[in-house]
Amino acid sequence: MSRSGVARTIDHDEFDPIGTLALVVLYFVVLTVMWLFTYFVEFLGHGPTVVGLLPLG
Amino acid sequence: MTRLFVDEYPGQARLVRAAFLNSFVALAIGATFGLIQAFHRTDIYRFLPSPDYYTVLTGHGVFLVISFVIFFLVGLFHWAITDSLGQRPSRAWLSWGWYGLMSLGTLIIAASILGGFMEEPPEVLGAPLSADVLFTFYAPLQANPLFYLGLIVFFAGTWLAGADWFRTWLTWKGEHPGKRIPLPAFMVLTTMIMWYLGSIGVIVSLVAFLVPWSFEVIPGVNPLLTRTLFWFFGHMVVYFWVLPAYLLWYNVLPTLSGGRLFSDPLARVVFILFVLLSTPVGIHHQYMDPGIAEGFKFVAMTNTMFLLLPSLLTAFTVVASMEHGARQRGGAGTFGWIRALPWKDPAFTGMALAGAVFAFGGFTGIVNAGMNINYLVHNTLWIPGHIHTQVGTATALSLMAGSYWLVPQLTGNRLVGRRIALFQVVTWFLGIVFMTNAMYRSGLFGVPRRTAEPQYSFEYDVGIGSMGELNAQIALGGTLLFVATVLFLGVMLLTVLNRDSEPLVDGTIPPALSGPEDSPRILDNLKLWAAIAIVLLVLAYALPLASVIQGGGLHGQDIRPYPVVLVDAVQHAGTILGVPIH
């Protein structure tokens, strides 16, 4: 749990967080795929999901 | 090996340890209740009658989100203030005073909830000792007066804790004129401003309505008013739960990654946005309340969408900081740097997995926040799925992972069982993925929340899979979460007992890549942000509150308290509905 794994020092101007950008893009791609899955596979073409009545008599 | 907090501030370390002890005891009880619920609701194994489910549910909520999280928060904040300002609070009686008040309040609350398990709860203060009112304790559900009094004592303790930290900061400020507030202290102070403003609603509800009502001093209450006052507090409090995790992500996670925080100014902006926006959004919890005009709900929705901004800023800043660490550790490539992160370190892995769950759970929050789509999920199991990804993992898993880093510094003992700790955080992650995946999907198909009997006589037409599969996932996930909790508490206990050891932890937090000097000083003007937050609060709440009072009166109209000693209530309901309920 120490910082001994650090092999080099990168300062502010040298650091370009391109990997973070890639992860953010991947995040939105995954969200889009999940949305498409939920809408087209889980919902579209299905009837009501709660089936039955409370017997009140 | 650097200086240890316990060596430098032994008195403060003792207080933080005491707060963590309360937190972990509450975690043990709350997690046990969670396991009972997972099996009861899915009807896989039941050993309690269903009326007692609501006692378990109330205990699960209160012990985890009030006691576990907030005791950890005050411990963490006390450490953060002391460590970052390099200044111990000068009045030990004040610090132990707030700890004592919070502990006393918790004991009173616990007694009132646990009394509900008795077959015939004793009469205390003129009412049966029971408080099956759930964590959201608004009317017409009514608890024993002790429950409300305990909450007031607990809240008083938290307010005093904030006063203690502000006092420490003011002393530091006097001795360091012109210096910028160190980031951890800034986070503590802004979070407490948010807490002061946001908790006013629930304190007014308790003092002016619920306590007099429970003592029968006033004839009744306006349920919508107590609901609105609760939710005035109820969304702010979720940020109160999450911000200790943010404090760890911004300050500890970058250093664990081998890097430095990418931007200190961005972190300050995020916390200011929470001060401004976390409270004037509470009405988004009341989209289904017919007594509130759609226009007020629309304003709350708009505010809520703005509130996405600080979370998205956090995702960027924290991931960029981790990437900086990974590249300093030799990582390369667009995604290849992820492999260079210290995945064998349980503190790092726990926080990183918590952040990943938060990112996806956060998106489900956008679903909750939209007025139209909220109607689809509002009263369903989707909502407990959301709270378990956000508070139950983003916060809980981060706090556990943070403990692996912080407790050795508070005790001077080496962490026992690093591999078990690593296994623990991964087990929690898997448990929450199984459980919340099933909760979210069940919610989409209309499975209700807050009931011991979700099945009644209904069938649910699940698109992919089956209800049996969803229930099995909930039970499996709940079991994994319980196992992870036991492992965590075991590791903590063994670490506290591991006295003949030296910690292997580096407590140094390096300066940010872009420090506070790169931002305008106005960011540190706490009075200004508090004043703007008050204006926004008045704008968001004055008219809705006036409308609620105008519509239903201050004390309601012939509203009877709901029977909350549930000895017969559920069975009675079952008789009416013709459904046998056990």
Keywords:
A: 57 residues; mainly alpha; 1 helix; 4% strand; elongated; B: 582 residues; Cytochrome C Oxidase, Chain A; two-stranded antiparallel sheet; globular
Give structural notes:
The complex is a heterodimer of chains A (57) and B (582). Helices cover 46% and strands 4% of the residues of chain A. Chain A has 57 residues and is mainly alpha-helical. Chain A has a domain at 19-43. The model of chain A has no long low-confidence stretch (mean pLDDT 83). Chain B is mainly α and 582 residues long. Chain B has one domain (16-577): Cytochrome c oxidase-like, subunit I domain (Cytochrome C Oxidase, Chain A, Up-down Bundle), CATH 1.20.210.10. In chain B, helix 6 (183-214) packs parallel to helix 18 and helix 13 (346-369) packs parallel to helix 16 (418-444). Chain B is globular and about 65 Å long. Chain B starts with a helix and ends in a 5-residue tail after the last helix. Chains A and B meet through helix 1 and strand 1 of A and helix 12, helix 13 and strand 3 of B. Strand 1 of chain A pairs antiparallel with strand 3 (459-460) of chain B, so a sheet runs across the interface.
Quick overview of this protein structure:
Chain A has 57 residues and is mainly α. Helices cover 46% and strands 4% of the residues of chain A.
Ordered list of secondary-structure elements with their pairings:
The complex is a heterodimer of chains A (57) and B (582).
Chain A: H1 18-43, E1 50-51
Chain B: H1 5-8, H2 10-41, H3 50-85, H4 92-114, E1 123-124, E2 127-128, H5 145-175, H6 183-214, H7 223-234, H8 236-251, H9 253-256, H10 264-277, H11 294-306, H12 308-328, H13 346-369, H14 371-377, H15 382-411, H16 418-444, E3 459-460, H17 467-497, H18 526-552, H19 569-577
Antiparallel strand pairs in B: 1-2
Helix pairs in contact in B: 2-3, 2-4, 2-17, 3-4, 3-5, 3-6, 4-5, 5-6, 6-7, 6-8, 6-10, 6-18, 7-18, 8-15, 10-12, 10-18, 13-15, 13-16, 15-16, 15-17, 16-17
